[in-house]
Amino acid sequence: MKIIKGNKQYFKGIRAIKYEGKESDNPLAFKFYNPKKKIGKKTMEEHLRFAIAYWHTFCGTGGDPFGPGTKNFPWSTATDPVQRGLDKMDAAFEFITKIGAPYYCFHDYDLVEEGATLKESEKRLRKIVDYAKEKQKASGVKLLWGTANLFSNPRYMNGAATNPDFNVVCYAGAQVKNAIDATIELGGAGYTFWGGREGYMSLLNTNMKREQEHLARFLQASRDYARRNGFKGSFYIEPKPMEPSKHQYDFDAATCLSFLRQFDLMDDFKLNIEVNHATLASHTFDHELQVAVDAGVLGSIDANRGDNQNGWDTDQFPNNVYELTEAMLVILKAGGFKTGGVNFDAKTRRNSTDLVDIFHAHIGGMDTFARALLAANAILEDGEFLSLRKGRYASFDSGNGRKFSTGKLGLSNLSALAHRKGEPEQISGRQEYFENLLNKFI
Ligand code: XLS
Ligand code: NI
Ligand code: NI
């Protein structure tokens, strides 16, 4: 990858971040993420496919419900909004190439601010997409996925694709059409739908069935448009149970699956699983991943972490090796990512106000994933974990157990066998042993 700086350098004094190994005490170096190191058949870089999230890293200035932003980004000072977009893109590609992430992700209006009219917005988008194309070409950085922001503008307060007013649905359609065009133009490997406002605040004023049918129609229409225009990548639905809506229709992986099956979308749509969304839904990250894998719809992941005491999407950078090892076990065992990757949907804290903090955050996240990848790979290569787990189901591998699992025994057969065999012997689940086995490799 080639480091590219724009007309102005934003991250002065910071060079390309290199792998220096565990013994290094350079805070601006990787201790575990060694992009070219082979783990099995792929390099670390190919396994993890890191992506930088445009919105958190280059747009979010740290505002919260109690106070304004705290971060004074030097790329946001121009008076002209298009110029601000171009400057931001210079900063983005300088950062992405210095940190060495092969991919990035964006919402339409992360790239350039929305204009006063749809026409003006489209004009701005075309300009910034042309610039992104140049930047991608010069650097070798690629687009992991694009998306449309259908939740910030007040027009979407009652929903976007699920809005009870058809006029708003049309507007959302225009935005998704533009975002799909941009994604295709930039060779994006995926296109994501996250429906923050696709849900409700009160069921009293909501016809849930109609709204969900409209959402399905919207997704079918988006897919048809994209496919007709040559998009070969994956579509992702990103589950989240709540926030900003009280209840979101894409609650968790299982809910999304049932929706995709009901509306015949399984061939084109996969899931983008986010750590903090999993925990908000009272699941673990690896649970959500496993649900997706078992249905053949593991697409991509949004990497971050929540907070054990706070019940909202805190979007902190990942730092929990144990949690990510459990996740990487599921991902590796499923054969890894195809079109997806690890997108850092995470933000530095409101009081982390220096530009170097963005580097520390990503270095930490990338190193944590690298450690988890190393540990999970070692666990799978060692094999004991897999064979122990498989062993728990051995009674279904032959004899009557096998007959049952292949549909050859009915309830009366089970009853007859129970009478003959008597009370089953107690068999330990050995959870602590499994936990210790994991620890051994971390
Ligand atoms: C918000 C979501 C959002 C999506 C993209 O919670 O994670 O950032 O990833 O719209
Ligand atoms: Ni996300
Ligand atoms: Ni999120």
Summing up helix and strand content along with how strands pair, one would put the structural category as alpha/beta
Tell me the domain tally.
2
Second CATH tier, the architecture of the largest domain: Alpha-Beta Barrel
CATH H-level superfamily of the largest domain: Divalent-metal-dependent TIM barrel enzymes
Write down the secondary-structure element order.
Answer: EEEEHEHHEHHEHEEHEEHEHHEHEHHHHH
Q: Which molecules are bound in this entry?
A: D-xylose, nickel (II) ion
Percentage of residues in strands: 5-15%
CATH fold naming of the largest domain: TIM Barrel
Shape: globular
Which CATH top level class of the largest domain fits?
Answer: Alpha Beta
The radius of gyration computed from the alpha-carbon positions, rounded to a whole number of angstroms, is 24 Å
Helical fraction equals: 40-55%
Give the number of DSSP strands.
14
- Give the termini distance in whole angstroms: 30 Å
- Biggest sheet: strands side by side, in what order? 5-6-7-8-10-12-13-14
Number of distinct helices: 16
- Average pLDDT level: 97
Low-confidence stretches: none
Largest sheet features: 8 strands, parallel, barrel
